[in-house]
Amino acid sequence: MEILIGSGFAELINENDLISRRKNRGNSSNILKDINSQAFFQDLKQKGIRVPQWSRKKPINDKYLIKKFKSYGGVFIKNLKSNSLKQDEYYQKKIFGEHLSIQFFVLNKKIEVLTICNQYFQEDTYKPFLIKGIITKKINCSLFDKLSKICKQVTQIYNLNGINNLDLILELETEKIYIAELNGRPGLSTNLIYKIHRNIYKDVNFRNKENTIKRFFGTQIIYSKKKILINGKKFDFIKSLKNSRSFSELPLENAKINKNEPICLIHLESNDTEKLKKKFKKLSYIILNNLD
């Protein structure tokens, strides 16, 4: 039996704070501080939860990345080129596998897996894991049980509350699951989560895993290919998108967007993942062409 639920994971934060304008109705600032620190990996390892090998000492080979302890959406992950680390950075070993995000809801210590997604990334040689989008996926019962157990373990460690997101890597060779990040608030998956679970804060009767969703939901970030000033005809085009539920986080008039910075989000759904990807590609082309 395959289970199709949604999920999403990573909250993307950049200098423009595009996607970080979210209300956090769950975890305290102290919890958020703990999970964005070196202590996070130490806590998980003590409980027997797998995390990628990491160190503050420079590795002897190039099979590592440089990452900040507070990393969202791949913004602060870069290839191994620097000779030294900043105070809030560390080296993390690369793990080759399927990148997943899982979003779960905690209320009165009860845990519900809301959605599970595949993550895909922007083509960027300097930032190889810059998040581009997420699409809900089908999983089997065995994998669902493993992911649910991880959510429960992490929740118990930090006494989590509300909506939380885990970034995980399912290693290809061993099928072992590694936790890459925990984000203690809604992020890129917010839109699709509320489409699937419309009354999440009112419904205290948790749905079981057999309650499946047949369609695939996705969210994609549109990155600018050059420096853009949103004015004149460009702003008129942006205004034409505002009444559509397919777009959010649209830029304001006279906003300055630099190359490789997010322009907006696209939210779509389909009964087929390949069709969904094609729809994203088509809409992305239309947006970028009108802002050229």
Structure commentary:
- The protein is α+β, with helices and mostly antiparallel strands and about 290 residues long.
- The chain has six helices and 16 strands.
- The protein has helices spanning about 30-35, 40-45, 140-160, 190-195, 230-240, 275-290, and strands spanning about 1-5, 55, 65-70, 75-80, 90-95, 95-105, 110-120, 130-135, 140, 160-170, 175-185, 215-225, 230, 245-250, 255, 260-270.
- The strands form four sheets. Strands 11-10-6-7-8-12-16-14 form an eight-stranded antiparallel β-sheet, sandwiched between helices. It has a four-stranded antiparallel β-sheet with strand order 2-5-3-4, with no helix packed on it. Strands 1-9 form a two-stranded antiparallel sheet.
- A hairpin with a 5-residue loop joins strand 10 and strand 11 (about 175-185).
- The radius of gyration is 19 Å and the shape is globular.
- The termini are far apart.
Structural class: alpha+beta
Give the overall average pLDDT: 84
Share of β-strand residues: 25-35%
β-strand number: 16
Query: What order do the strands of the largest sheet run in, or round the barrel if closed?
Result: 11-10-6-7-8-12-16-14
- Pick out the low-confidence regions: 6-24, 204-211
Q: H/E order of the elements?
A: EHHEEEEEEEEHEEHEEHEEEH
Termini separation: 47 Å
Keywords:
four-stranded antiparallel β-sheet, 6 helices, 292 residues
Quick recap:
The chain has 292 residues and is an alpha+beta fold. The chain contains six helices and 16 strands.
List the helices and strands and how they pair.
Blueprint: E1 2-4, H1 29-35, H2 38-46, E2 54-55, E3 64-68, E4 77-79, E5 89-93, E6 97-107, E7 110-121, E8 131-136, E9 138-140, H3 141-158, E10 162-171, E11 177-183, H4 190-196, E12 216-223, E13 228-229, H5 232-241, E14 247-248, E15 256-257, E16 262-270, H6 273-290
